[in-house]
Design goal:
Chains A, B: This is Transcriptional regulator, TetR family. 2 copies of one chain form a homodimer. With about 210 residues, chain A is mostly helical. Chain A has 10 helices and no strands.
């Protein structure tokens, strides 16, 4: 995955420089995830990462460059998770069920929502020039599901009437909306209900070939 | 709907006082909707509503009281819409289809997301003491769908295997998640796909009685 790192060119950076940059990003991502973009200021990032103000501005000259790098950081994590072997390209209904189960049964904390979704909902209201980065990341996310569903269709395991692009939207929307409701209710139930309904809807399009195979 | 107004007791207020308070709320709600809670400060509200600083602090002594009143304001609007005659208590599959169509075909702008959802996603990251207000509003919203679905079930138009509470979560999550994705993509397609999939999933639980009736 080729992603814009949102900061200066990384080539020529020393190992130590990259480590410092990584530490800043890790702390900034955590602060933004738990407190939001707006409440995350230089002072908080500086203190949390244990660096000087000049170090911070050396790697991230302004807030936009820091937020852009955090988007990329979270995108690598979310997209990387979806591309992991665990889901094997999302080519079976079981992969989607496992994906839903992961959020519901794994005990993964939902209190702060989706790392990308909660960032996105705040950013779309700001004038930070990072909307295109977000649009691209969510399009890539949709592509992962769409491509998997298209392969299921090609193999005859998903009915020809199914629309992979639409179903991909349904899956991500269920996760994003369910996460928001779970945060508000402080209860995983809305997320569980939304994800399982999405998988159930997808299952209705699977053919007996899929059942036979798995 | 009994709602906490989030500010001082309204009894004894003059008509002029209520009008001023309403004007402040209207402008604050609009600012929060388009710019977010964090970026909406006293100065912006004051200038937008054309009032003095002392008037603002008279009606809303702090940000929490203002945000709480805006939550109630948006809740009245969203819950009132769902309780309108147009949907007749959400007792037929057609009411749900019309609900989805409203967001998709009405040309209603989706650029700023759901007035309650976008507010909620920002508030859950702040330390404003208004989470319980949000939790209550979303529970009321779920209740509107749940009650309608239960009546469909009682009338034999929704299969006994359907879980009204779960389906209500699915519907609201589809709208919230779809709205977020539509905002990010600047395209109504993800919202359309999420809402129509949710209605389709609901339709799968309707019995022939429902079809016969409508």
């Amino acid at each position: 995955m080729q992603m814009n790192d949102g900061s200066r060119d990384l080539r020529g950076r020393t190992g130590k420089g990259l480590a410092t940059r990584g530490r800043i990003l890790e702390h900034a991502a955590d602060l933004i995830y738990t407190r939001g973009v707006h409440a995350t200021n230089n002072e908080l990032v500086r203190r949390s990462a244990g660096i000087s103000g000049s170090q911070l501005s050396h790697y991230f000259p302004n807030k936009e460059s820091l937020v852009r790098a955090v988007i990329d950081w979270q995108a690598e994590s979310v997209l990387g998770f979806h591309r992991s072997e665990r889901f094997a390209g999302f080519e079976t209904i079981e992969a989607y069920q496992e994906w839903a189960d992961f959020y519901v049964v794994s005990g993964r904390p939902f209190e702060n929502g989706c790392s990308l979704g909660s960032l996105a909902s705040e950013i779309v209201k700001t004038d930070l020039d990072v909307r295109d980065d977000l649009t691209r990341v969510f399009a890539e996310w949709q592509d992962i599901f769409r491509a998997g569903l298209e392969r299921m269709q090609d193999a005859g395991r998903l009915d020809a009437s199914a629309d992979p692009a639409q179903l991909a939207h349904m899956l991500i929307a269920a996760y994003q909306g369910g996460s928001l409701l779970a945060q508000i209710a402080r209860d995983v139930a809305p997320l569980r209900d939304a994800l399982y309904a999405a998988v159930e809807n997808l299952r209705a399009y699977t053919t007996s070939d899929d059942v036979a195979r798995t």
